[in-house]
Design a protein that fits this description.
14 helices, mainly alpha, globular
Length: 440
């Protein structure tokens, strides 16, 4: 049996890991359904056309507010029992979606109350995902973190894509208008309730934090939050691999965001490809399949060449793929590009998650992962804002393709050079090693 197979068998054999994974998978399946319902109402309603500027405004409205409070939310992940966060968070977003669905059907997706409720749900989704990442080291051994990350985050992405695909299928049953999107959202709400039930099966103290601070008055708590954010930033800054990884992944998220918004516009009714929601769904499925392959390849590869070198290789490959398969502007070429870019996105995320989990102390993990998520959001919204200037209504722009490819190339080169300069001055990289060599 290969080392990869043994490591995966160890991870899956852990009952607490399986319980945490079940909460992730069902929650992310529901995330995919809710986001697909939202996207279909905003971008793929036959009665409505969306420009790049409107797309940028939509992403900014949904993502920026949590980007501001994300680090503060992370402090609470280091204060509250993470099992309770998973339980209560799923119930809260289920309740909010019930109200959201009713207002969406009557007021439409652009009305202020609907946008506000969508913001709450999206923020809760990101907060819970940060909690899942911070909790993972409590249910698997340190030596298995890369394998556990590969397995759980990739299956989670697959679950989200499956949820989106389910929403596409239900769209045929429920309808393509706002009422149909609202019905899809209600199905997602039911799944969140089931995810909460699964979270209740996990021991309340199991997921940490290990040594939470004592409760204090509200004013003191807010002051502690502000200090905690600064301490978390300092904690990351002092850990070179984590800081470099966050910078590189933020650049990746910007260029990936440009590609995503362009693809979204290309597949709308007025887009240059114009295959609609089903065509975009095929692109997303191809991206998820690439991520699944990354989960298989990344653990073995990091043992041979190192986690940080693998990140540089993937970003270099992304630059080539963007040019080779983006410039033709055909549906078939975009499917290939989506597969390889999905590979790069998931592989780099697996590596960075592990770098953070290995180099960041548990008392800081919630803050760091929330800050990580905030960087993701800010980078994506920045890309959406840039797309409003760079992209035409049909989404087709050779300038953007070249810009994204060049950005990936510069990111890969800079990251590789900075990592090489620090070689030998930092602790060994977190990679999957043979379980037999680390027994005990």
């Amino acid at each position: 049996m290969s080392t990869d197979s043994r490591a995966l068998r160890e991870v899956v054999a852990a009952p607490d890991f399986r319980r945490l994974l079940s909460v992730r998978l069902l929650g992310q399946f529901a995330d995919g359904m809710f986001q697909a319902a939202l996207f279909s109402a905003v971008f793929f309603n036959p009665e409505r056309a969306t420009s790049a500027g409107e797309a940028a405004a939509a992403f900014a409205t949904l993502l920026l507010p949590y980007s501001v409070v994300g680090p503060f939310a992370g402090v609470f992940l280091d204060r509250w029992r993470r099992q309770r966060v998973l339980l209560a968070g799923n119930l809260v977003r289920a309740s909010v979606i019930v109200v959201f669905a009713g207002l969406l059907a009557t007021l439409g997706p652009t009305s202020p109350p609907v946008v506000a409720l969508a913001l709450i749900v999206v923020s809760a989704n990101r907060f819970i995902l940060s909690g899942l990442s911070a909790a993972l080291p409590h249910v698997v051994e340190t030596r298995l973190l890369v394998t556990a990350n590969s397995f759980s985050t990739t299956l989670g992405a697959g679950a989200a894509a499956a949820g989106g695909a389910a929403a596409v299928a239900l769209r045929l049953l429920f309808g393509t208008d706002d009422l149909g999107a609202a019905r899809n959202a209600l199905v997602a709400a039911l799944l969140y309730v089931v995810a909460a039930v699964l979270a209740s099966r996990i021991a309340s103290r199991l997921l940490g934090p290990t040594d939470p601070p004592q409760h204090v008055r509200l004013r003191s708590a807010f002051a502690a939050v502000a200090r905690g954010v600064a301490q978390g930033a300092q904690h990351v800054r002092e850990r070179g691999p984590a800081a470099r990884g966050l910078a590189a992944i933020s650049a990746h998220r910007f260029f990936y965001g440009l590609s995503f918004v362009a693809t979204l516009l290309l597949y709308t009714e007025q887009g240059a490809i114009g295959r609609g929601f089903s065509g975009l769904g095929q692109v997303i499925v191809a991206s998820v399949l690439g991520g699944l392959l990354a989960a298989i390849v990344t653990p073995a590869t990091t043992r041979r060449i190192g986690t940080q070198r693998w990140i540089a290789v993937m970003f270099s490959a992304a630059a080539v793929v963007e040019l080779a398969f983006g410039l033709p502007y055909t549906h078939e070429a975009f499917l290939v590009a989506a597969f390889f870019l999905g590979f790069a996105a998931q592989g780099s995320k697996i590596c960075l998650d592990t770098l953070l989990q290995e180099s960041v102390a548990d008392d800081y993990r919630g803050r760091v992962f929330s800050f990580y998520d905030t960087l993701f959001n800010v980078s994506f919204v920045s890309a959406a804002a840039a797309s409003a200037v760079l992209l035409p209504p049909n989404g087709k722009s050779y300038v953007v393709i070249v810009l994204v490819a060049g950005g990936y190339a510069v990111t890969a080169l800079t990251y590789a050079v900075m990592t090489a300069r620090r070689a030998g001055q930092e602790p060994p990289e977190p990679i999957v090693t043979s379980p037999s060599s680390l027994s005990g």
